[in-house]
Design goal:
The structure holds two protein chains of two kinds. By secondary structure, chain A is α/β, with parallel strands linked by helices. Chain A has helices at 25-34, 47-54, 91-100, 111-116, 148-164, 188-202, 207-213; strands at residues 11-15, 18-22, 39-40, 79-83, 106-110, 139-141. Chain B is an alpha/beta fold. The chains are: A alpha/beta, B alpha/beta.
Chain lengths: 219, 154
Amino acid sequence: MGVITEKLPIYIEPMPGGSMVLTSMDFMINWAHANSLWPLTFGTSCCAIEVMMAAGASNHDLARFGAEVARATPRQADLLVVAGTIVKRMAPILKTLYAQMGEPRYVIATGSCAISGGPFVFNSYTTIRGVDQLIPVDVYVPGCPPRPEAFFYGLLTLQRMIKEGETVRKPGIRRKPVMAALPEGITIADIQAELAGLLDRNATVNVPQQCKERDLDEP
Amino acid sequence: MSPDDLVAAVIAIESGVAKKDLCDRLAVNVLPETLLKFMQRLHDDPQLAFDMLYTHTAVDYPVENRIELIYQLYSVKQRHYLMVATSVKRDKPEISSVSSIWRIAEWHEREVYDLFGVLYDGHPDLRRLFLDDDWKGFPLRKDYKDDFMLERPE
């Protein structure tokens, strides 16, 4: 059932009566951490349906990546999946839960609400604009809500991050994955302009015109 | 009881009751002064028998300077619905509580007080329900602003 995404860098020396393994302690510990993430069930809105329920169910099967042991207590978990909107009254609870998790602890922010506040970013009296204002976030999974595949990609990214990053000498220091370089001649402004154009074009609808085209009575 | 009979019976209860148009369900407008008496009749009359208040909400109309209060009623016995609407002034939002008729109204009215600032006369325990006790202002009013809120750029 398991999917081996990366091999453990070890050197095996055959010896009489068995064999001897030579590897580094960091690799060993990180490999064990990455492949046994225990998520804390923390779903506050619709993202929990995709990320906790659909991803955990048999069709997608979270167990392939060793992260299926969802726990209802932070004391037994080391991965906090923030799946949903966080409001002012939930913020202290989230901080407490994070503080109660044992080290090393990892955070995945799934969905627009957990990343930036999403649809509630403007004119909301209560929605926290991004969970990274409260706790440090390792991986962001965009989507509203993200599909289970997107969540798996986020999980695999986190696993890669764990395997590459932290050492026993510097606990808690991890390398964040960075965006790949942009193609030559294209700037961020170009991409933003194109996205804004798409939004403008699709954001209006002429109801009488479309009714006429489809032979309907005007509303 | 057919819908037409129901409307006729409801309108006959009190003067100032009028059918409210453009609604999905049967709906009537009531004057705020007569609300409590009207609701008591709706509850007590054996033909109407509205024994359940299943939602109470409000809508803010700042231009018309009013807050519209909506009561959704259902009769388990007669199996019919009725929506009762009334309006209070925005700068003086006072109305009599219906919690003496349906006890669940205590919770609904606390919520409306919390978010719109409507004051209910005769409510046994009018405190904030969802927001913190020291919250300033009523956030579902259209003109609500605070330091935390991010304005939408034009």
